[in-house]
Amino acid sequence: MMAKSGRDSPELKDDMSVFSNGSREESSAGNGEASEARSRSSGAAVSPAPQRFTFSPEPSMEDIRRMQADFTDERDWNKFHQPRNLLLAMVGEVGEVAELFQWRGEVAEGLPDWTESEREQLAHELSDVLIYLVELAEKCCVDLPQAVLRKMALNRLKYPASKVHGSAKKYTEYKD
């Protein structure tokens, strides 16, 4: 999907988080004030949600795009970094990520059984995937942050929480 201006996407409040399944959640203060307020207003006891991993705020997606563009320009590699080549390079990097998980069976969230060296190798390979993805989006003129907002809005429509809660079915399998 080609990017359009930010006017096309749903706006998020500064205190909202969006998750990969399209859900939005109000960010709460570190002391749980928002959770406590919801609990008091509903009259139900709410157990604290497990702490979610969060990314650092910097570099931004635009910072990453700019760093990679500078890196490519300094090496005169733009003639090689065309959409098809970037896509194939990204797929190769995804294969390298898959190789790190191969033959391990199910892997627990947080990778508790991985060594620091294995975690660092995963970070390198995931970074390669992201860098190629961002550069591919740049070459195709897709504003990824805005595209993500639009896609999340579509996901919320396809997978309403009231209908899909706790199920892994595809949206075509749900009955009204």
By secondary-structure content and strand pairing, the structural class works out as: mainly alpha
Order of helical and strand elements: EEHHHHHH
Average pLDDT confidence is 81
Number of discrete helical segments: 6
Provide the fold topology.
Layout: E1 16-18, E2 24-26, H1 33-42, H2 61-74, H3 83-101, H4 116-139, H5 144-158, H6 161-164
Antiparallel strand pairs: 1-2
Helix pairs in contact: 2-4, 3-4
How would you describe this structure in keywords?
176 residues, mainly alpha, two-stranded antiparallel sheet, 2 strands, 3% strand
Please, could you describe this protein's structure?
The N terminus is likely disordered. The protein is built from 6 helices and 2 strands; from the N terminus they run E-E-H-H-H-H-H-H. A hairpin with a 5-residue loop joins strand 1 and strand 2. The protein has 176 residues and is mainly alpha-helical.
Summarize the structure.
The protein is mainly α and 176 residues long. Helices cover 49% and strands 3% of the residues.
